[in-house]
Structure formats: C-alpha cells, structure tokens
Design brief:
Uracil-DNA Glycosylase, subunit E, 8 helices, six-stranded mixed beta sheet, 38% helix, alpha/beta, 232 residues, single chain
Length: 232
C-alpha cells in the first residue's frame, strides 16, 4: 500500500474546524455497540496500490466506520458492499474489511474520497471540499497508470471533474450529467463509470441493488482488459 508524503499530511490535517470538532466528538462519545473500540478520530488516508489502473472515489469516511477503524470504507455497510464487489471482480483478496490489520489487500485498485473526515449529516461544506482537494490532486498526479475512475455518488462525480479542471486536464464540454451506470470516455483516455453510492439510503430502499453495483465493477474490469493508456 502506498506511503506517499501527502498521506501522512492527511492524517495530521486540521484545516476544517467543524470537521475536526465533529470527528473528535464522535471518537469520544462513540456508540454503544463500539464502546470497546479506541476510535481513530483523525482524517482517514486513502487505501490501495500506487500502480492502480482503477480509481474509486467515495464521499467521506463514515463516522463510526472509517473514523473508528482508520481505514476508508471499513467497518460500515457501504464498505461491505464495496469490498464484496471488488473481491468478486478480482480487485481485492477478501470480501470483507473490518479493521486495519485484517489482511485486506487491493490489486490494481486505489480508493480515495472527496473529503477525508466524516462531515455532520454526510454533508460537507463547499469550503471543506476545497480544503481537501489538494490531496486528491496529488493522488491524480501520482496515479500514472490510471485507466478507469468510478465515482460513488454525485459529490464524488463533481469532485473528480473539478480536480481534472484544476490540473489542466481536458474535460468534456458540456460536462455529463450524473447517472448510475453512466460511461464516459474522457479526452485523455480515462473511462469514467458512475455509480450510486452504496449508502444505506440507497441500498435499503432498492435504489441500488447488488447486481447494479457489481455491474459497475464488471464494466471496469472489462475496460481494463483493453486499456492501453500510456503514462502521463
């Protein structure tokens, strides 16, 4: 797993007072079922391979998931869906992610988020997204082999296009409208495959089914078979 300098900076970040206060309050107060845990309570770094061709972008760590365990999409229902799908398609060595030392490894896949602290009500402020974006810019510069990007939800979708613009990379004009299963071939050879976020709000209502979610990563795997994109 990568140990880029920016990942250490993420863990120590205190740029957003509202988020610092919230993540630390959650870590102190906990919830009954996790009273025996020592919560991570800091920004959660990204996770995966620096040589990855697949990039998954989520919204933020869950208050009692990543904020508790210290690994992105770990210890919450959204992570259960994500790692199960990645395992089925050969991007992960196991279908579960419960804690940082559970042996999970990703292959050809890197997972990041639009914002590295849990926001209250899962609603980050525009200023907080802006404060966190330099970390994503650094990751995009370093992921030289990137072929497929899967943003999970609208915020991840718009964050990725905003990051590309800041980097001076070509975007479609006009920008595409978010929709689950949307596939966009970007001008520089990257393929974007959009997905609903596997939040309980989506999975428990049937807006997102496991078959729908698996199909996104099946399309990602299919795209990688024919990816011949050279390093930037």
């Amino acid at each position: 797993m990568v140990k880029w300098p920016a990942q250490s900076e993420i863990v120590d970040c205190r740029r957003c007072p509202r988020l610092v206060a919230y993540r630390e309050q959650v870590a102190r107060e906990k919830v009954r079922r996790f009273q025996d845990w020592t919560y991570w309570g800091r920004p959660v770094p990204s996770f995966g391979s620096g040589n990855a061709r697949l990039l998954v972008i989520g919204l933020a760590p869950a208050a009692h998931g990543g904020n508790r365990t210290g690994r992105i999409f770990t210890g919450d229902r959204s992570g259960d869906w994500l790692y199960r799908a990645l395992y089925k398609l050969g991007f992960a060595n196991q279908p579960t992610s419960t804690h940082r030392d559970d042996g999970l490894r990703l292959t050809d896949c890197y997972i990041t988020v639009a914002i590295h602290c849990p926001p209250p009500n899962n609603r980050p402020l525009p200023s907080e997204l802006s404060n966190c974006r330099p970390y994503l810019l650094d990751e995009l510069r370093r992921l030289k082999r990137l072929c497929v990007v899967v943003p999970l939800g609208m915020i991840a979708f718009t964050t990725y296009f905003a990051a590309r613009k800041e980097l001076g990379w070509p975007n479609p004009d006009p920008l595409p409208t978010f929709g689950h299963g949307l596939i966009v071939k970007l001008p520089d050879g990257v393929t974007l495959i959009a997905s609903y976020h596997p939040s309980q709000q989506n999975t428990q209502t049937g807006k997102l089914t496991e078959a729908m979610f698996d199909e996104v990563f099946r399309q990602a795997r299919k795209t990688l078979y024919s990816c011949k994109r050279s390093n930037k």
